[in-house]
Amino acid sequence: MPIVHHRKPSLLSYPLWFGARTLLRPTLSLWPLNRAGMAGLFLIDRAIAVGPKPRGVVREQMRLADRPVELIMPSGPSGRDSETAILYLHGGAFLVCGLGTHRSIASRLSSACELPVFSLEYRQLPSVGVGTSVSDAVEAYRELIGERGYRRVIVAGDSAGGFLAGKVVETAAREGLPRPTAFVGVSPLLDLDVGTNPDRSSRSDAYIPQSKMVQLAQLFGRGPIPFSGIRRIPAIVDSDFPPTAIITAEGEMLEADVIELIEKLDDAGVDAVGHSYSWQVHAFPVLTTRHPETVHAIGVISAFVAHAIREAKEADHRKDRRAG
User: Fold this and answer.
1) Phi, psi of 68, rounded to the nearest 5 degrees
2) S-S: 97 plus which of 101, 220, 287, 322, CB 3.0-4.6 Å?
């Protein structure tokens, strides 16, 4: 089955879900998306950035495609692949979060996959629109496979970052760039217009109100770089997709689009799998560190990435042998 259901939640799952439902959801519903309401949101990332630092990795602040990026690598000796990297695109509704809020998941992916992770600080609202966010993500990918010399790049992201990862897949195919080695999503936003989709609902979502997505969508068109191309990731041509793995919370608003994409890719013969976890909240691997479901989800992702890399290496070997 392309969708794997995990329906034995840990005991900690219930208070986390109800806590998000009773506290976080009303806060998000009432938070104003005016100049005053958006002005200080960047402080959330700054505050979390000064917290405890992840263990087992080394970090370096640098630039990628003229944007700040945090390079995270496993510490100590390892047999990691010097030709493969992960480009991680954080979530946050194109409005909040950054390197600090997503340092934990980027570090855990680096450790589990034994790969360097480039966590990108792309431009976002309220300063710029989604078209500019997409451009930053695409240019970061372009530099990794070009100037940086990585032969294989996995594109990964959660929530809004998952949409950006999908746009990298689309742009790579359109511009003839090497296809990403894999697409990894954690509760990815796959439809830019999900807020106005009559077939989608946030009634069962722990904390994302669909009405807020409607308000946010009015800001997506801000410049300076115009948005272009598809607005629904499932509309990308099946053959353009690399092997795909997606983690979702069962019943969350974005899950229906995930199921649609995974089943569509599976029918087309693309290696694609979705893992749906009951009684979890949107993007739970980002929000919790030692939560049993988070640990399991990171393991699922790392195993899938390892398999995709093996397949890509074998394909590269066959190609090199024919060329030689």
Assistant:
1) -65, 140
2) 101
Identify which of 98, 72, 94, 97 has the alpha carbon closest to the alpha carbon of residue 85. Answer: 72
Give the pLDDT confidence score for residue 52 in this predicted structure: 77
Give the residue from 77, 66, 158 showing the smallest Cα distance to 121. Answer: 66
Chain-centroid distance of CA 323 in Å reads 35
Does 186 have pLDDT greater than 90? Answer: yes
| Statement: residue 160 has pLDDT above 80 | yes
Confidence of residue 34 (pLDDT cuts 50, 70, 90): confident
Q: Residue 97: helix, strand or coil by DSSP?
A: coil
Which of helix, strand or coil describes residue 321?
helix
Cβ neighbours, 10 Å, residue 168: 25
Residue 3, SS3 per DSSP:
strand
Pair of tokens at residue 287: 């929000």
Rounded to whole angstroms, the Cα distance separating 294 from 284 reads 7
Q: How far apart are CA 233 and CA 195, in angstroms?
A: 15
Which is more confidently placed, 47 or 209?
209
User: Over 80: is that where the pLDDT of 77 sits?
Assistant: no
Helix H segments across the chain? Answer: 13-19, 25-30, 35-39, 42-49, 103-113, 130-145, 160-175, 210-217, 255-267, 284-287, 292-323
For residues 86 and 49, the answer to whether their CB atoms sit within 8 Å is: no
